[in-house]
Structures are given as C-alpha cells and as structure tokens.
Design a protein that fits this description.
The chain is an alpha/beta fold. The protein is built from 13 helices and ten strands. Strands 3-5-4-6-7-8-9-10 form an eight-stranded mixed sheet, with helices on both faces. Strands 1-2 form a two-stranded antiparallel ribbon. The C terminus is likely disordered.
Length: about 350
C-alpha cells in the first residue's frame, strides 16, 4: 500500500504488488524496474489484480520479465484494492501518477535490489496509464525514467463513443464492448457525480443498472453477462444516442483524458495490432502523431492480423529490444516528426 493522488489531486491510498527475481542483482544498481499498468479489470476493490491468484491473468508475462532480470511492480490504480472506493476508469492523471508512485514505492520497499532505472509498460487501459505515467514520471522522485511502452493504448474516447453510437443506431451489436462502455460512463460519474450523471452517456436502462452500488463489484468477466440479463441490448441499447450534442461538458472532459497532454519524461514505444476490435488502429496512428507533436521521441510498431490481446505476445520481442537499448543508453529510434508512418514490427 502506498500514497498517490486521484484525478482531482487529492491524496488517496493505493495498492499493488512487487515481484523480485530470486537471484541477486547482476550489479550494485539492482534490478531495473518495470512498472506494469494492467488492462481493464473492473471498478470495485475486488477487481484489483493484487487480489487475484493470477495477478490479473498476467502471471506468465510477469514471470518472463523476472527471468530476464527485471523487478516488476504493478499498481492496482486508485479505487481498486482498498475497500469503500470506486475506480475512476481511464482517469489519465490518476492512473499515470499511481504507476509512477508505484515505482517509487517499489524502490523504497525493495532497497538495493531495485534499481533507480524504471520503465512504464501497459496494455489497453494500461497502455493509456503508462503514457500518463511518462507525463507524471517526475513523481517518482530520485529515480531515472527510461521510457514508456504502450500496447494498444486507449485514446480518443469521444471518437470511439460516437462510432459506437453510429453502430448502435444502425442496428449493429456492441456485445463484447458494453461493459467497457458502461465503465466509461461510470468513470465520468466518479469524477463529477453532479455534472455527469450515469445517463449523460448511457441509455436509461444501462444507467439505472450502473448506478447500483453492488454492480460496481462486478468485474470485467461478469459485467457483460449482467447487462445482457438486466439491460439486454436489443431493448435497452447501451449509449445515449445524442450524448455528443446534449453534453458538451462530457465531450470536453473525455477529450482531456487523451494521452499526449504533455511531453513525456522519456522516449515512447507504441505497439498496435491491425486486427484490434477494441482499440481502433486508426486512433492509435492518430495518437502517435499527437505524441510526436508534443516533441516526444516515439517509435511505433504495427502487426497485421493481430488482435487486441495478441499484440502483447506478438510485440514482446520488439519490446525487449527497445528496453535493452534504453538500458544500454543507445539513441532511441523514432518515427517522428509528426506524420511519419509507424514501422512494421518483426
């Protein structure tokens, strides 16, 4: 447990876990640290990866990094873990700070076994959080930030939600995404309950269900099934069709959650599968241009035929090469200036 801050800058307690290789560090600097940012798990305390036996389903990946000589710390994000809280889904600054503060907490807890050198690495919501951590890296005081690696990072929420409304209005199904969309509505409500009621974004039926405190404890593997039973898509819809016009404040707030708000403290690697149905590849390409426009050093890899989850396994070799380069202090590759096309992954 460690101290961090929510999206409003208020201090909050956060939880996570720290993993260290069994053997002694190779040198006096300690094991270089990966601050892992997890993908979406839910809103309630019990959805925290640190509370699960599988550590959020990522045990094989985490063990691989341990075998490669990294220490790994993983933030649960504010609202996940401690009782009595609700997670502010996709709150960029809060998630980013929690990932940076987790690195500092790991350094303090691990002592000489944990290096001052650290990376932020994440998938999906975690890719979004890792990019936020790069902008908040100064919060890990006294440590040396080596860069961010973001796999299929969430971005451009307003555009994604407008596309989802168009699909809904035209009779298309949002099954498989309804829980994520409901979590976005809940995240807005957590930020400002008065300005953003659940039905500012969500259909009345879905909003009614998401307002139930017990529903906040349903994690990602449960929420879609719950909504299919109590707010079925064919009768309840998912999103409020005119939310974009009726709530300009919500639209503005969603835009403020986009990464590339400020220049990162280190170089950035973005990895994206071209067959991703959750995070649109065109949105990630736009994000790469925006990161470049903020004078970041950005490398980007795309993988044809690879889906949202598969990009993690497919991109591991490119990630390893990139991290070794940062540890060896070589010049980071970049597709910038803005407008350059992402390079193909190998």
């Amino acid at each position: 447990m460690y101290r961090t801050a929510d999206q409003h800058g208020n201090p909050v307690a956060a939880t996570g876990f720290l993993l260290l290789p069994k053997k002694a560090p190779r040198n006096e600097d300690g094991w270089p640290l990966i601050s892992w940012a997890h993908g979406t798990t839910g809103l309630g305390p019990s959805c925290a990866p640190s509370r699960t036996e599988s550590l959020g389903g990522m045990t094989p990946l985490l063990v691989k990094w341990l075998q490669e000589g990294f220490a790994v710390v993983a933030a649960d994000y504010p609202g996940l873990g401690p009782e009595g809280q609700v997670h502010g889904f996709l709150h960029l600054r809060a998630e980013g700070r929690s990932v940076a503060h987790a690195a500092l907490a790991a350094r303090n807890a691990g002592g000489s076994a944990v290096s001052e050198k650290w990376f932020a690495v994440g998938l999906s919501q975690g890719g979004h959080a890792a990019l936020g951590a790069g902008e908040e890296a100064a919060e890990a005081k006294g440590m040396r930030f080596l860069g961010t690696a973001a796999f299929a990072p969430s971005s451009h929420l307003s555009t994604a939600l407008r596309d989802a409304v168009d699909k809904q209005v035209n009779g298309g199904s949002l099954e498989g995404l309804r829980g994520l969309l409901a979590y976005i509505g809940a995240g807005a409500h957590v930020f400002d309950p008065e300005k953003f009621p659940y039905d500012a974004l969500l259909s009345p039926e879905v909003a009614k269900e998401m307002a139930r405190p017990a529903v906040h404890n349903l994690c990602l593997d449960q929420i879609d099934e719950y909504l299919s039973l109590f707010a079925p898509e064919e009768t309840a819809g998912t999103l409020k069709p005119d939310w974009y016009k009726s709530s300009p404040a919500l639209r503005e707030w969603l835009d403020s959650l986009n990464p590339a708000q400020r220049t990162s403290a280190g170089p950035v690697l973005v990895l994206q599968g071209e067959d991703d149905k959750v995070v649109p590849p065109e949105g990630t390409r736009k994000l790469v241009g925006e990161l470049c426009a903020k004078e970041n050093v950005v490398d980007s890899k795309t993988y044809p035929g690879v889906d949202h989850v598969g990009v993690m396994l497919t991109g591991l070799r490119d990630l390893g090469t990139w991290m070794r380069g940062r540890l060896e202090n070589t010049r980071p590759p970049s597709v910038c200036p803005a407008g350059s096309l992402p390079t193909q992954g190998k």
